[in-house]
Protein 1
Amino acid sequence: MYDFSYHRPKSVADAIGLLKGKPEARAMSGGMTLIPTLKQRLARPSDVVDLGGVKELTGIKVEGNNVVIGGMTRHADVATSAEVKAAIPALAYLAGHIGDPQVRNRGTIGGSIANNDPAADYPGAVVALNATITTNTRKIAADDFFKGLFETALADGELVTSVSFPKVEKAAYMKFPNPASRYAMAGVFVAKTASGVRVAVTGAGATVFRVKAMEDALAKNFSSAAIKDIKIPADGLNSDIHGSAEYRAHLVGVMARRAVDAANK
Amino acid sequence: MTAATGIGARVLRTEDKRFLTGTGRYVDDLPLARATYAYFLRSPHAHAKIKSIDVSAAAKLPGVVNIFTGKDLVDAKVGGLICGWVVKDKHGQPHKSPAHPVMAVDTVRYVGDTVAMVVANTYDEAKDAAEAIKVDYDVKTANIDLAKALDKGAPEVHPEAPGNLVYDWEIGVKADVDAAFAKAAHVTKLDLINNRLIPNAMEPRAAAADYDKGTGNYTLWSTSQNPHVLRLILSAFVLGIPEHKLRVVAPDVGGGFGSKIFCYADETMVCWAASRVGRPIKWTAERSESFQTDCHGRDHVTHAELALDKDGKFLALKVETIANMGAYLSTFSTAVPTYLYATLLAGQYTTPLIYANVKAALTHTAPVDAYRGAGRPEATFVIESIVSKAAAEMKIDAAELRRKNFIPSTAFPYQTPVALQYDSGNYPPIIDEAMKIADYKGFEARRAEAKSRGKLRGIGFSSYIEACGLAPSQVIGQLGGGVGQWESAQIKFNPTGNVQVMTGSHSHGQSHETTFAQIIHSKLGVPMEQIEIVHGDTATTPFGMGTYGSRSLAVGGSAIIKATEKIIAKGKKVAAHLMEASVADVEFENGVFKVTGTDKNVPLAQVVFAAYVPHNYPLADTEPGMDENAFYDPANFVYPAGTQICELEIDPETGTTEIVAFTAIDDFGNIINPMIVEGQVHGGIVQGVGQALMEGAVYDKSTGQLISGSYMDYTMPRADNFPSFKLGYKHTPCPHNPLGVKGCGEAGAIASPAAVMNAIHNALAPIGVKHVEMPATPLNVWQSIKGAQRQAAK
């Protein structure tokens, strides 16, 4: 990797201060994407601001009807949290199926959604559960957060401090893993909350997206039979040696039906 | 000897103590004072002319010690890398042998071809400097697609090989085979691709070298499977360093699967440059370099036809294959798709007539050479695929058709129509046992049950034969092989009675330190903890051929047996003297010399001591010391055989395949350590299933970029992809080696691709799928199902 200045602040304020005015500085949470990128010399940041020492960013708490997860909370902690398992078991399941044990014990929810890898799992949950992302400056609705391939609504130097998920009536996440990397090739999060049904797809497109036709059908009849004839257009979906766009479109349908069945169990 | 530690015992591995506690010593672990670090600049293009290389800016960067390019090697008159097996084409002409410069001079021929070597004080400084080297490339059209590589107008890889053809080789008499086809009641035809694989040894290739200016001695540490052969190649052909001035050490090596047999540019450069730089040089491949520059495996396009009579008796087999050589001919590349492939096309069957034609093609891809099984997996895949296809077409049970054509046990030694003479075997009991363990009879009920869960269940056979322990040397020489195929051993007792056993074979995961010690323990009665197996260092071991082709036990183990016989013979003379008896009356058993019919005895340790402190010793006719050498050149190959049965379920909605049961019954002759053999079979099956379901080297067909260049895109098999395997053995001892052993290192990988793919075809046949190529990834299977559905709808 190329040389950079390394910082390990203890507070959000210090972290923001370190990032300010340095367009080439990068914040690092778990480093699960940034470190391999550095090692391959694909990035050349001037500074790396390691958020690992910022205690205020970690932890899970229940606030009224919401589960609030600190931005630096690791996937393994979400997967094993009694609060998450009780309120939104599908979210604990999702966190428990990200990467491998090493990744789950390093990677964080804030890092995952701020990076917005098209094949990441968390964006599916954030959008399907209609979560709210809190940063050091504002609150952002899930639908406004994910903008495109590795692109979010976050401004330079803006950090995800927590993500708030409303409790659900029913939800499930099903993903079809890429055979090589085991990232999601088509991951579908289906959630039924007080405000309605949402279906969010990750891995198949440039960024997470909702499937309105399925949401409408499931709102009327929350069963896999209700969506069995809904076809996902392949246009614009990802295509590579592991899955054509047509295959991914097909898998979205299969995973959606399996998610609904799992949610109904 | 005691069953607990001798031949046949499940002795835990001696080497595991260091491997499991992280104290193994690999090339990269070497502490070398004043070391420099090398980084190789690789070609980013599959095919380009090098217009210029400007290293001036790079040379000025901090820490840079030296930069070398191909031109420096030309100026220093360094030889090119060699191909060590001359295959003669069907007209008797030697294969086309294009130059293989150690580093590219004016042309790069694959993505990863070596362009420059930077030596610096640190690895990062070397890498920084490499980025600053300016290479002006004139990018040309690349020849990537094997199926079109020999077509008229395909971009030429080397002017020395017009039309990219290395050889057009054949075995068998085509006219005889054609005549048999004309009379056949049934002909089964099959087109298949044997997918290209990337070896992925756990330890990447590495090299380190030191030059001693005072003595002119070079030491090269290398991740080699055959250090003596590497030294020979570097000395005699490439660098011209006298053999006695070059020591090659292959310490602990973390897997090879064939990819570490060969002499590569990297260790050649590290060794050569060490004397120029005047400091030691270290280099370890990054994983991306391993993907791009380790020799790849397989990569055939094949058309095969099998002629049968009305009862399913095989009449003749005809095979046409185009084999990919990549951009340069690697060390043993030419032999793999000929003598290690077409000579195996009889399989376990009495097929009386076989004709095979193999065309070797150059492409702008990484060199292709031996990879676990080397030719034999490709042969087995052809035979076992076409046999199962013929069974399905003729509506004969797949096991029944095999049984009908097996070479009967009474026919050994059996001369096949493709040169090999099988020494021993008994195939029907193997398939019977496999079918029993796999509960073949219960399969249809399991298929029906799976269907009720929406799953398509299939079962597939693969009855393989393989030839390992290449031999004898004279035959290999007649076939064009450039080296001998014997093995060496030295048994050196120390005065205190413990023993060092030097072997010319090399362990890079095969557990020689345990298996060979068990042999010594059984034959000489020395306790296991007093035996040290020494390998991998040309300075301490006798010249040997190394480890590949499942040869170590059959050939290297036999050399050890020969050396034990010499030790015992000498020991008898000493013991006779000590016991005041006639040599003819001395017998040796369980580590003790005895006078027959008396209670007089003397243990081996005492004999050894007497040999080193010869105060009471038959010096008149016996030399002091207890140190014996042996060389063993086998009379023939050994021929392991077996049957695998794979049972799997396919999820037709996603195309995902799950292996639900896997049975392997093998005949490896006598077995020294069943636990270690099982480990070999497990690993082999996993590698073969990896080929069948997951692995595939994918190059972009126009640019030649390696798309599957990391673990993000190259699917490796993982533990959770597999059920527990059901293994079993049948034993027909090899009649021509002293241990009665055959080889077990490659069998799993040789047999399993066909077992898996036959099961896939069996599962998908009911819904009309005709053919699925390897790897049967979820996408591939799903597309095959879609294709069949579209066909049915028409």
Protein 2
Amino acid sequence: MQQPGRAAEIKAIGIGKSFGSFRALDDLTLDIGRGEFLTLLGPSGSGKTTFLMILAGFVQPTDGRLYSDGVDITERPAEQRAAGMVFQGYALFPHMSVEANIAFPLKVRKKSSTEIKRRVSEMVERVGLKGHEKKLPSQLSGGQQQRVALARALVFEPGVLLLDEPFSALDKGLRGQMQAEMKRLHQETGTTFVFVTHDQSEALALSSRVAIFNHGKLLQVGAPDEVYDRPANRFVAEFLGEINMLPLKGVRNADNGATGLCEDRTITLRGNASAVGSNAILAIRPEYMSIAPEATAGENGIAATAVASTYLGAATRLDLTTRQGAKVTVSVPNEVAASALSKGNSVWLTWPAEKGFLLPDGGQ
Amino acid sequence: MKAYLSDRMGAALLMAPLLLFLGAAYAWPFFGVVNWSFTLPEPGLGQYGTLLSDPLVQSVFVRTLRIAAIVTIVSVAAAYAITVVWVRGTPTQRVIAEFCILVPFWISVLTRAFGWVALLSNRGLFNTWLQAIGFISEPLTLVRNEFGVIVGMTHFLIPFAVFPLASSMRSLDDRVLLAARGLGSSRMRTFWSVFVPMTRSGIIGSALIVFVFSLGFFVTPAILGGGRSVMVAELIYLRIFQSPDWGLGAAISVVLVLFVGALMALLFRYVRPKQLI
């Protein structure tokens, strides 16, 4: 339905926004690629929604420039930007039928009535709303309203689709269903998607790249596995999922990685890890750690005592304490957890050298 | 359940004085009026027959409906503009709009009617000024006719039209307006095809309340109409107090009350009472 060339390429350079003395967004520079699915992720008040509103043209940035396909659109009003937008709570026109809602952007663009009819019915079919065309939004379920909002925002083939926490009002099952649907719509339309959420699992599942925000600053941008496995700092590491952190001393670079001492054991890191100082924090995701009865030579490992377990069905979550008192959580097979707790609770924690990474000591 | 019942009893007790007063001061006398309409000067439906056949009574009813309709359209349109500024304007604009809405409430209806006479009469301010700048040579007849009545009534009723509109504009979700603009709609188009339809219940409520008020207007038409533009309420007054024709006056009253009652029933289908204040 859409020529791939119509997807927009967006460039934000040094974007900042102040509301009085409050700095909502600070010095944001970001390239959004043609046809990309970019998620803006962060806690509430992190600036992600402000950036989306700036992209839509509803909020004027205090500093910086915004380019779409090389054209400066910083001062261009929202109605001339042709960005499709899906709001939190959908913002459907309550007095218009499903059909009229979807036709609205085409009517505004003065398309012929035959073209409007054709494209609306195409879109109704695409989002699975056939048979509901004449209903009012208030007669639809949450998921159906969501589909109307998506259809309305996509029907005029915008260069970019902006989505502001579109699934926050849906229950979990419906959420998963709508996420899959949105991924499909992204592939089918080929347009650029910019999606705001505070749900990290949603961000990791949907996007081609994730941009993480906190306190008005863009902290890191990267592919989901990149930001999850190699977070730029402690905030990103913690926001994207559970993480174990252990102090590391005497850190120095080694070939293809780094080494250091953790609780008197030599630890090796392989991959992107490089030392910034002699002290650092060693970070490992719980699912990459496992439990062994004793140390194996040449493998990373430290001694720990199991203190509690939580049965999760598919696996058991085990809380442990190291000799020097650091708290560690691992996710292990159920039978491993049972034996760990029975054997005087003393076990050996191990992890592959490429799964650990370094965070600067103490700071963000 | 017990607490609920006693709450209801308490509420009933608190409302009792008002209900008794309304019963004694309105309902009981109104039954008397209904009684007159069927019994004076002799028992039967004679007065209602006159009502249907008398060209004078009919012309007054038609005039009343016409004036009420014009006043309704003008008041609601003007109130809509004021309310948009009041609810969605900048803080300064809001203060000015609020002042314009509330000040008329502090001046009595009589004072306002005479004020308009002073402004609109042949030697009033408007005619003097227009003649002074040479715009007209003969004074325009702006008062003691339907025009004067419409001006005075509109001025009185605009604030009443504001409240239902304000209530519907306040409950409107701003994101829907943003959505319209984001989809490419100009401000003008967003106003006409999204904002106005979404305040529909406010417009209906506002129009009905102004219309109902207009039907029973007495003081303003009596003063600004100068006897030449008689409306229903004034006709009833004339039948009761000047040509002692109580039966006909009573019959007209009954018809007016029934008509207004039907409109009120319609009104409350669209608006909750608390939206009117």
Protein 3
Amino acid sequence: MGFKEKCFKKSLWVFHLSAGSCNNCDIEILDLLTPKYDVERFGMKLVGSIRHADVLLVTGIVTKKTLPRVLEVYNQAPKPIVVIAIGACPCTGGIFASGYNFAGPLDKVIPVDAYVPGCPPKPEAMLAGVVKLLNKK
Amino acid sequence: MGKKTVVPIGPYHPLLEEPEFFKLYCDGETVVDMEWETGYNHRGIEKICESKTFEQVFYVVERICGICSTSHPFAYANAVESIAKVEIPVRAKLIRSIVGELERIHSHLLWVGLAGHFLGYNTVFMWAWKYREPVLDMFEIITGNRNSYAMFTIGGVRRDISAEQATQLLKVLDDVKIKTDLLVGAVMDDPVLHARLKGVGILTAKDIHDFGAVGPTARASGVDIDVRRDDPYAAYDMIKWKVITTPEGDVFAKAKVRLLEMYESISIIQQCLELLKKEKVGDIKAKVKEIPAGIGIGHAEAPRGEVFHFVKSDGSNSPVRHKIRAPSYTCIPTFRRSCIGGTISDAAIATAAVDPCYCCTERMTQVYDHRTGKRLMNAEELIKLSQQKTEEIRKKIKV
């Protein structure tokens, strides 16, 4: 187990950053907090500031206007931080990859630890992504 | 007036799900002016649509907004079918209406939850989102996905609703109705919510006309508009339902309109399912050979108001021009009336009251002077204006 994974054995605090998304992944992330999935029982919770976060969830394509903001949020994050790309958009650009305002997939902008593809990924898939990341040898 | 304080909110703020930037100019506790900046979410969808075929555009417009992912394909289908002059089968019309109304239920529940969250009433948030889950499960059973349903196609729908699914849907609806009763009781009788929402963010009927606001925002101010009744599409002229309006115009009225609309949606789906039994199973798509050259206009009533699509075809297999106008585009400017004059603490719920959807709103706009036909303020003109100002200052201070 690497240093990064060891740091995150306990409750994970999550910051959600919507780079340029269609709301779909964002509401599915919120869905994780509500009674059906209720990730708060594992100590995970959404925090208001990136300075308190262990995990950065990024949804949506990185547009030309959000690119400097995404970088700034990442630079403000306490390291080590886990970055998870939620949905097809930050992974590859998805359906918007041919758009003129697309600034490249997320891993060209900041280092990414896990990819959860899908449009939108189901809340179960997001949980599975985090579990896979934590079990990484 | 004393010194103004600027309170910046966003673009990444715990209150906001999407990136947008508000600047509240405050004098003490009172908001005296506000500005907002969007454009973070602009993905160039209209241009992408021009590179896709008519069939593929459905999956692009669906992803304009994850919450209105039936309304945009609905309006686009209406536009394309008006070019091709296709009459779609009754069964397809009914299924379209069912999916559209299910979406309204899930969107309004989502709004009630988020409004509760903005007020610091997380119990309402958890309740509303818990009751929303069975609706999403139903979507998964009918369409195969919880969001982004890919249900529409030119000339009809892609999947049929079987008798078993219909029975299951009716059962879920009965359940949702009981839960809505609970939620309506909890919201309407709560003294704290009354104190917090009544008389806050009032929009008069004149404001609605001035800004051209649509949907529940307009109906809560007593403006009786609804595309489903005014220009019926799909199955809305085959069934009995009523448009909910209330004259107060405050945030509480908007909550009331949305909650009562859920009952109407439930009743529409029940009637559609009843009519569905009489139609032949599997007759869900009319044959469309080609889209001729022409101009098509389609609109649909999304949970937030009227969605408008304009499609121009030159007879090839993809649109030459696709123009989209989402409801939030006209609802968001009403913030200037609802927030200014209120306190900072009321600004959050006054902005949330119109159910703003910024990813729908991120459209490019150019303003033309209607007298000269000249485009106002492009980048070059702004630079020119800036240079002029420098020139004037130079003259003034003589350097």
Protein 4
Amino acid sequence: MSTSAHDRTARERWVRGGIWLAVAVVLLVLPTQFPEFRVEQFCSWMALAVAACGLNVLTGYNGQISVGHGALYGVGAYTTAILITKAGWPMLAAAVAAAVVCFVVGVVIGLPALRIKGLYLALVTLAVATLFPLVIEQFPGLTGGSNGLAITSPRLYRGVVRDKPIVFEPAFGLAGDQWKYYLFLAATVVCFLLARNLVHSRMGRSLVAIRDNETAAEVSGVPVATVKILTFGISSALAGVGGAIFALNNARVNPSSFTIVVSIYLLVAVVTGGAASIVGPAIGAVLFGVFTDVVSPSLPARYQPATPVILGVLLIVLMLTAPGGIVGIAQSLRTRATARRLRSSSEGTTGPATAA
Amino acid sequence: MSLLSVRGLRAGYGLVEVLFGIDLEVDEGELVVVLGSNGAGKTTTLRAVSGMIEAQGEILFDGQRMNGKRPDQFLAAGIAHVPQGRGTITDLTVEENLRIGAWTRKDGEVAADIDRWYETFPRLGERREQLAGSMSGGEQQMLAIARAFMSRPRLLLLDEPSLGLAPLVTAEVVDRLRSVTAETGAAVLLVEQNADLALGFAGRAYVLEAGTIALSGAAADLKGDEQVRRAYLGF
Amino acid sequence: MNNFLQVLVVGIGDGAVYAMLGLGLVVIYRSTGLLNFAQGELAMFSTFITWTIWEVGVPLPLAVLGGMVGGFLVGALLHQVAVRPLGDPHLRPLATVIVTIGLFLAVNGAAQLIWGTLDKDFPKLFGEGQITLGGVAIAWQKIGAVLVLALMVLGFWFLFQRTKIGLAMRAVASNSESSALVGVPVPRLLMLGWGLAAAVGTVAGVFTAPGLGLGSNLMQLTLIFGFAAITLGGFDSPLGAVVGGMVVGIMTSVLPQYLPIFSKMRLAPAFLLILLVLLFRPQGLFGRKQVERV
């Protein structure tokens, strides 16, 4: 019995390691196999994945529902764009600043969220998401208004210093888009690792405790208010980093890129991938990206709106049948397979306690 | 033949089983009580007998097999249920509660019936336009009973009417209930923790312990038996 | 002063439309306890149905009735397939939000699939005319909106206070378990509530479309105004929806006159209203149920 359990965990570890290795290889090889426009699309999937990862920390792990993370994504993108274009900041510094600004904004939003919960918090954040593009349009001097803002930096061009759209120069023998891809990949991996460490930490356990039963968490000594506000801040900072990647990738920002629909798509990514699992939002973001950038453009223009219909129906079906999303489905399949293997190997001597 | 006959009743919630094979009978017009402590399965028994939850075993009402039927079919057969915590519809007025109690009736005597209940429970008559939620616990309990009788049941299931009521108020409610049943001829299956009260009301009693019937008999016998009182009834 | 009155009139007309959408939201909140984020999209969809019927030559008032019937059927159907299997919304708030958001996406996309992505011109139900009273021009369309709202309120009052079905709907909203115990068919009444809310939303869409152009994003701003209205009035109060709708309509129309910063952000005061009411008086002006709070 004990040896078979030991074998199982060892085998599982190998399988897991193998899967991760394969994923890493694919991620590294990807930009060398696809044309530039595809690589840029992959970059935009990463932007979405990081923002979804942030939303997941808040909604999946902490149970605070936000339908407004598209706005925070937008704050991150606009902070990056404005700092580079108007203040001449270097890209990396601007991206870090975007995270900090979003953290602060998140904490500010988190304060009323201490009193407003559940469906009502969803309502408030929905209003924030709807309001955001209008606010951007209200201040054209800073944001470029409804025309959007090209992200430029002063550069020497034909002997004169001019504001030119930012580009990623080829470096280390990589084409510009590939170099950009690897930079964003590194940032994405760092964000996901940070989120992973966060949810596995003491604070991560508090997050889940608050989600599952706030009163019980409170009486067990979890500083509920602090944890909830911090979670809002961290989640928003991640959304901000996602927005920064989005802005740097496109070299321009538009209010129309940050409508309520983006907030909804972030939720789609979290829920289809698997809320309250670290890789879930990444899987969801890739799935969403494949849908919008590969499947949808291949349809005749007449039928392209089928994408939101499919995503909407998928969302509902998943919520009603498999709230754990794709990760949840995979886990239950694995549990079932393990249970079957145990049953057949021990010929009925294994009780349900071991199988579970 | 009994009005209600339950054989080998098993029920629970999800994976948790609460009842492990219960047999009980209620005759036409009979007052029966099920006693037991918290968690013994009293409420679950009533919920199974009114079709609110699925149950295994056999539920016969008036010779008709009720298993698998919907709550409104239980109601139509003549079983009315006053749930724990009274279940008055607090945002409706007293009169509206009584009218909704007659939802399944197609006859034209609803208004006359309502007036009759106002006579039986004058306190309700005085408060017919008042919201049920603004009344006292005792008044709400009477309203809940009157509402259940609006469907003209042959069996009333009553879940812990004494819960949260002062002893004097409880005594009044039970008093009224006795006269109402005498008048309508309805049988009552009452579940209670307050054994003293319940044994004074009912003719026959079952003692439920951890999902099985530990004891049954005439109420007077159970009340009188010193050993039973100490072991099961705690008074 | 005249200018103020003029803006006030516009605000009341807008407010009537917010109140209509708000009434639908209240019906759903009262019966199923959920905030329906897809309500605006349902209204948009049935406004398209109205447009289609009108396009083939049916007079507009009849087309609106047809659109309401269509909206009723769509709303009832969506409740049966997507919302009913959820169970109690307050026990599973995330799932509830996700399902209504999924409906939002699906209905929006479906409208684009069926009617294309170009905005359609939509006629005014009460024509282009206006009357002038003391120097203030009042469009018939605005007067019509207020009259239709009054009719709707009357209709709802009659349904809920004077009919057996309405009584049962109120009973279900208050205590669905006890209602089931007296034999009320709870799921069917909830379905009816969704259908009614969608039918009412049709009218809100019909009044919104002439100004904005009928497109798939028709109701996204109106939805927030509608939510602001019922947040202020109280999520479970039809009277609150009407009063709240008027306040929101007047506020978003008058404020930009004096504070130009709100001219493009008419939504901002509505947002602030939602936030402040939820923070300091979550039951709103006329609501009774306690909104979840720490």
